[in-house]
Task: inverse folding
């Protein structure tokens, strides 16, 4: 399993190391040129402070793109009947096969993170006159983003355990990661609008999106909130890690019960397929209602609301039936 992922693992690691190293080198060259121009006595003005926040945009790529690709490729045999029959006929238990696949892509993620960190450390030591580095903050961010990778991998593994084609794998992974928090957000907004003293921080703290580090980072893009309260707090790391373990255990139980005939089919049963389609349709249709509800100055708000909702319901149903 580890060798089966070597192509994606090597390419991903090399790309991430390049994305990390090139900006460091370019910035160091610019800092050195500024120091030479201004003089050594003014060098402190141009020395750059580096902490963990500088690595967040880079590490987001690891759980947003690379981890799903690794996991989906590792479980791709479940989507084809011939490969599914072959793996299920091996003289290994389902549990051993499940743990082997998990160990393979988790090890590649660890190799990628270690390569990124070591390459950055080497460059910072080469250009030590240009940077002041807070390694403690960097390690903390690396640990947090690695937990995010585990959660993303667990959600994709759970999705692959109960679906039988790549499109269903991707759709269900997104639903597992974001739909529960989306429902919680709707409940939170409704409660806060009714009870003025209720908030996610003081009323029911676990409803706060910062507890789930993946959701917190994605929502911060739209809200403009700081990531310090998401990445650098202990309760977010514990909550995200426990949630990842729950998804891994659930995926294991479903994988053990999975039949080889599921390969090529959207889900394990028509009941689960109906639930997934309903959830996708509901998620798509409700987006228009929220967008229109935010535009309070709209003169024809009600008319636009019904039109947008009807359009989104139509698109959602069309998308669901294409799965």
Result:
């Amino acid at each position: 399993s580890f060798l089966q992922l070597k192509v994606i693992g090597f390419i991903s690691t090399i790309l991430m190391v390049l994305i990390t190293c090139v900006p460091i080198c370019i910035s160091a060259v610019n800092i050195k040129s500024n120091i030479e121009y201004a003089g050594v006595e003014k060098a402190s003005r141009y020395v750059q402070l580096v902490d963990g926040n500088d690595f967040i945009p880079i590490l987001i790529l690891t759980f947003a793109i690379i981890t799903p690709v690794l996991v989906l490729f590792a479980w791709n045999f479940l989507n084809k009947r011939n490969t599914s029959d072959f793996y299920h006929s091996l003289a290994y238990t389902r549990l051993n096969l499940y743990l082997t696949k998990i160990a393979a892509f988790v090890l590649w993620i660890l190799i990628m993170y270690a390569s990124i960190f070591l390459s950055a450390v080497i460059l910072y030591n080469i250009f030590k006159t240009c940077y002041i580095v807070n390694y403690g903050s960097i390690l903390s961010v690396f640990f947090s983003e690695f937990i995010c990778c585990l959660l993303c991998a667990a959600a994709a593994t759970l999705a692959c355990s109960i679906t039988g084609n790549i499109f269903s794998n991707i759709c269900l992974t997104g639903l597992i990661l974001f739909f529960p928090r989306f429902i919680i957000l709707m409940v939170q907004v409704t409660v806060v609008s009714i009870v003025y003293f209720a908030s996610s921080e003081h009323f029911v703290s676990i409803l706060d999106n910062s507890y789930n580090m993946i959701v917190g980072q994605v929502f911060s893009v739209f809200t403009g909130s700081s990531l310090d309260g998401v990445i650098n707090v202990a309760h977010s790391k514990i909550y995200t890690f426990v949630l990842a373990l729950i998804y891994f255990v659930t995926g294991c139980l479903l994988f053990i019960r999975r039949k080889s005939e599921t390969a090529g089919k959207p889900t394990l049963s028509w009941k689960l397929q109906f639930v997934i389609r309903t959830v996708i349709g509901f998620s798509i249709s409700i987006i228009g209602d929220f967008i229109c509800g935010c535009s309070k100055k709209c003169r024809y708000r009600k008319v636009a609301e019904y039109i947008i909702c009807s359009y989104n319901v139509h698109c959602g149903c069309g998308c669901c039936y294409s799965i």
